[in-house]
Amino acid sequence: MSVLASTIPPAPAVPPRARALGARLAGLSGHDSELVGALNDAHHRLAGANDRLLSGPAGDPLVIHHQIDRASAPISRRQSSAERSRSTSASSPNS
């Protein structure tokens, strides 16, 4: 055993509540990561749609409205689901 290894104190034990909080935060972080990916994809689709609008002839406003609605619907559903999930977990007595 080296001299350096014998002078390092052992790491303190992590309390169970801290472990539980860490696990919960890791889960939320993973979910947030999925949301960021979906928002990034939506941003690229919207930027592409804007480029097509600017470079092509003027489109039918009603058709454009429906295209935007279809592109944003998955994001709206995910965001609503995430908000419901967070409000449910925040109101749980174990928080």
Give a verbal description of the structure:
The chain is mostly helical and 95 residues long. Helices cover 79% and strands 0% of the residues. α2 runs antiparallel to α3. The longest helix is centred in the middle third of the chain and has 40 residues, at 16-55.
Helices, strands, pairings?
Elements: H1 3-7, H2 16-55, H3 61-90
Keywords:
95 residues, mainly alpha, 3 helices, elongated
On the 0 to 100 scale, the average pLDDT is 80
**How much of the sequence is in beta strands?**
under 5%
Biggest sheet record: none
- Total helices: the number is 3
Mind telling me the C-alpha Rg? 24 Å
Structural class: mainly alpha
Shape: elongated
Provide the succession of SSEs: HHH
DSSP E strands, number? 0
Low-confidence stretches: none
Distance between the termini: 44 Å
What proportion of the residues is helical, as a percent range?
Answer: over 70%
Short description:
This protein is mainly α and 95 residues long.
